[in-house]
Task: inverse folding
């Protein structure tokens, strides 16, 4: 309130009296007020892909066998510890005891069996069913032990079990989780005013350390001007993922706030549809890669937030290799390569752009850069639903598109020739098979490095930049995630100073 | 009168039926699949197929239409594909925000515009008239989202009298609920007030030039008496027509204002539902809006009869 000018005090007082004394004092301290851009369609992370679901529920309401921490590491969740058989096919999880769901039901091995079987069942509508595809059987020899047998080695199995889509639910309440989520997390669901806010409160029966802040409310604010206004008016304590990067500079100068810039798993790509014969020619793909000035896109479209990348891998991952030098910005070389491939007269292509600003703004800049090497691009704006039906699925009707692949550690998509961009390489697929069969961290790291190199050398897409996580956090609020190894707002470690 | 009412009801039904068919057809050709939107890029084809079946998207379109209308006739709007909650409940939750907002904005606009318009008409060409005309010009020129941001800047960020947005549910605290609608209603009212002021002024000028006004004055009726008893009453007919049209526009304007103040209103639900291809929600909201516009027109007609009791045929 220090910013309120004294002459306004009387007016503020009058307003407070007029409203019948109903104005509640700023509740800083017992409620963490967070802003989110998108409203989740529902609150069941096992039945929807929307990142907005995990942004409310992950680690706060629901927990899985393992969990992923801010550094992107797999740490114990509801499983206290585990052992893996030498052939990598049998995982034995020792579960925590004394765990209860928010409705009081006790958590046991049978709940794990139920949850995993439900997620991989034929009629399952789990959005990440692939996470469970290696599972052969799930068994509960006793209430505190779960044995999962795989049909093939899956080196990332523990990581997979840390996703929001793999959380453990109770058979009795599972069907109601969309509107009344009941998990084992440190916060329980209180209320959801649709279109407005979602409220959580500390669950007193939580098995672990109680979180420091008793209540959490998520306010849904889609409009970027409204996001800024809500922060400036002091209505929020944090907006972990601000919609528009251009609004951040005004918070950098404001002592009440800290601008928190971190990394995400979002590899932002200029995708080339390799179902088109044109893009099956590696010279064309390389020419286009050389024609793009990645830093100019980060500066122009993202106001400097983002890190140029050279392959499909997040720079914060320890297996990351910097390959930005493989196809550097070099328009002359681009023109030479295009001429070599027989396109000296230029090309006319269509670029479909989904709604996010990185795509719409980035598309304008890329179109200008491609024009400089003789490629005319027609920009077509599409909605997400249309992008999913026309570009991602269906007829794959596009030449170029720009999209950020936000799924964590998703380099494996290049081993799927049926995937929407249609890339295929037997070398790459071979490496991915080895990754799946390797559980040893050092071995996986080396294989991931090879995989990144193959994609960079092949110019499998134009790897533009890693999407930054740009948030605004109150100066007195600590313990919020700065980076987003998975899309979540884990507030269990947050506290006010 | 009875046959007149019967005609109106038939009109109403016909309009709604046409609207429902149109909405259904448009949504049918809209690209995008609700199941794909919900399950995203990681979904397996089996999961998509399972969800499509669960949502009833695999049924024949004619059957789906009949199902929808049949449900409506017994008061069932179906279930939202995205929220998985009854559509009627979702719409009702939003109406308690949007309707009070539109009514408040309308009241503010009328309370500002009618006195200002009458005042300007009586001061034709004078400084007062010029000031009112100028102000209404400015009011028309300012887009309501921009005025909304201006209001937030002054009253929420600098003065801290209001929150920058959001809505406190009525049953939680009605005073706070009302308070959260004040700035949005002002933002929404501005351009409506500007238009109504001009219409009132023009209509009043028309009436002021009539012989019966001079007669009334000659009979010794006071200036104010003439203004309220004769000018206003006669000027209201065109004003009511515009008000009816404006009220329908208010609902459209509410979409923009709801976004800036992040109010959980009907407009935002509609935009979100279109994004998610939540067909069950979209088609019912559009039908509600169409029904609403038809009802407002109906109400305006009824108001005509009160303002001008002569039978419809002999008016003007």
Result:
């Amino acid at each position: 309130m220090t910013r309120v000018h004294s002459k306004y005090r009387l007016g503020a007082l009058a307003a407070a009296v007029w409203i019948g004394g109903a104005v509640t004092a700023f509740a800083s301290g017992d409620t963490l007020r967070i802003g989110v851009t998108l409203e989740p369609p529902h609150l069941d992370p096992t039945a929807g892909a929307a990142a907005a679901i995990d942004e409310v529920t992950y680690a706060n309401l629901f927990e899985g066998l393992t969990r992923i921490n801010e550094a992107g590491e797999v740490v114990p969740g509801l499983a206290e510890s585990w052992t893996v058989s030498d052939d990598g096919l049998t995982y034995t999880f020792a579960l925590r005891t004394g765990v209860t769901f928010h409705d009081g039901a006790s958590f046991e091995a049978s709940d794990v069996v139920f949850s995993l079987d439900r997620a991989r069942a034929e009629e399952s509508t789990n959005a990440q069913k692939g996470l469970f595809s290696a599972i052969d059987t799930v068994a509960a020899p006793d209430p505190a032990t779960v044995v999962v047998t795989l049909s093939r080695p899956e080196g990332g199995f523990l990581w997979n079990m840390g996703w929001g889509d793999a959380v453990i639910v109770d058979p009795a309440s599972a069907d109601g989780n969309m509107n009344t989520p009941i998990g084992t997390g440190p916060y329980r669901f209180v209320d959801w005013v649709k279109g407005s806010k979602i409220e959580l409160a500390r669950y007193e029966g939580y098995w672990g350390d109680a979180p420091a802040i008793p209540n959490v409310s998520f306010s849904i604010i889609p409009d970027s001007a409204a996001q800024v206004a809500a922060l400036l008016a002091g209505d929020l304590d944090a907006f972990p993922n601000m919609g528009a990067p251009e609004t951040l500079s005004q918070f950098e100068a404001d002592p009440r706030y800290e601008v928190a810039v971190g990394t995400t798993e979002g590899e932002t790509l200029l995708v080339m549809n390799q179902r088109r014969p044109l893009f099956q020619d590696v010279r064309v793909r390389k020419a286009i890669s050389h024609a793009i000035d990645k830093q100019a896109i980060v500066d122009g479209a993202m106001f400097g937030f983002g890190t140029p990348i050279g392959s499909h891998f997040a720079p914060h991952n320890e297996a990351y290799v910097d390959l930005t030098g493989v196809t550097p910005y070099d328009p002359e070389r681009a023109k030479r390569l295009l001429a070599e491939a027989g396109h000296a007269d230029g090309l006319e292509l269509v670029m479909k752009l989904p709604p996010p600003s990185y795509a719409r703004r980035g598309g304008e800049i890329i179109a200008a850069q491609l024009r400089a090497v003789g490629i005319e691009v027609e920009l077509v704006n599409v909605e997400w639903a249309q992008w999913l039906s026309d570009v991602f699925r269906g007829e794959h009707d596009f030449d170029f598109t720009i999209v950020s692949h936000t799924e964590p550690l998703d380099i494996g998509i290049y081993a799927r020739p049926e995937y929407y961009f249609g890339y295929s390489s037997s070398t790459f697929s071979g490496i991915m098979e080895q990754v799946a069969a390797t559980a040893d961290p050092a071995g996986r790291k080396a294989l991931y490095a090879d995989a990144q190199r193959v994609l960079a050398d092949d110019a499998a897409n134009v790897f533009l930049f890693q999407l930054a996580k740009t948030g605004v956090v109150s100066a007195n609020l600590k313990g919020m995630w700065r980076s987003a190894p998975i899309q979540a707002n884990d507030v269990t470690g947050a506290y006010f100073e | 009168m009875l046959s007149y009412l019967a005609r109106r009801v038939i009109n109403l039904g016909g309009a709604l039926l046409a609207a429902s068919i149109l909405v259904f057809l448009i949504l049918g050709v809209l690209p995008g699949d609700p199941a794909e939107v919900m399950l995203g890029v990681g979904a397996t084809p089996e999961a998509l197929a399972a969800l499509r079946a669960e949502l009833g998207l695999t049924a024949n379109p004619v059957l789906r239409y009949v199902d929808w209308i049949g449900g409506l006739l017994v008061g069932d709007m179906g279930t939202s594909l995205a929220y998985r909650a009854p559509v009627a409940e979702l719409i009702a939750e939003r109406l308690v925000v949007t309707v009070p907002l539109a009514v408040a904005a309308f009241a503010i606009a009328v309370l500002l515009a009618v006195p200002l318009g009458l005042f300007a008409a009586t001061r034709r060409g004078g400084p007062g008239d010029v000031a009112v005309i100028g102000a209404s010009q400015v009011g028309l020129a300012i887009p309501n989202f921009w005025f909304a941001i201006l209001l937030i800047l002054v009253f929420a960020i600098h003065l801290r009298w209001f929150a920058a947005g959001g809505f406190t549910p009525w049953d939680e605290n009605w005073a706070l609920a009302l308070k959260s609608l004040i700035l949005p209603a002002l933002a929404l009212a501005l351009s409506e007030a500007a238009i109504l002021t001009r219409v009132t002024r023009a209509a009043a000028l028309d009436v002021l030039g009539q012989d019966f006004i001079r007669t009334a004055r000659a009979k010794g009726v006071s200036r104010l008496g003439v203004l309220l008893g004769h000018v206003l009453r006669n000027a209201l007919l065109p004003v009511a027509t515009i008000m009816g049209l404006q009220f329908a526009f208010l609902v459209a304007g509410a979409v923009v204002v709801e976004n800036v103040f992040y109010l959980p209103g009907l407009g935002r639900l509609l935009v979100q539902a279109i994004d998610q291809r939540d067909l069950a929600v979209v088609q019912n909201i559009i039908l509600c809006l169409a029904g609403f516009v038809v009802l407002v027109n109906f109400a305006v007609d009824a108001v005509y009869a009160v303002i001008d009791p002569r039978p419809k045929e002999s008016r003007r």
Observations:
- Chain B has a mean pLDDT of 86.
- Residues 223-260 of chain B form the longest helix (38 residues).
